[in-house]
Amino acid sequence: xxxxxxxxxxxxxxxxxxxxxxxxxxxxxxxxxxxxxxxxxxxxxxxxxxxxxxxxxxxxxxxxxxxxxxxxxxxxxxxxxxxxxxxxxxxxx
Length: 93
What we know:
alpha+beta; 93 residues; 3-stranded mixed β-sheet; 16% strand; 2 domains
């Protein structure tokens, strides 16, 4: 899920509501944006989604991986992409 999608999916809730309904917010497994006087103060999200987000951030530190991604994007824009079906056949899948 993209950052923008995660933020759009989040329910806005003010601090007092969050305090009163914390257990319900946690069990809903939906992200919540906690507001104070209409300003974002905190973000409540499911643990698994947070782990995924942290993993993505770690991957962004890998310069070799980032170079490979940039190379792949460049090749794709140049029309050098390989259809998935052909790749899977080549891999024997």
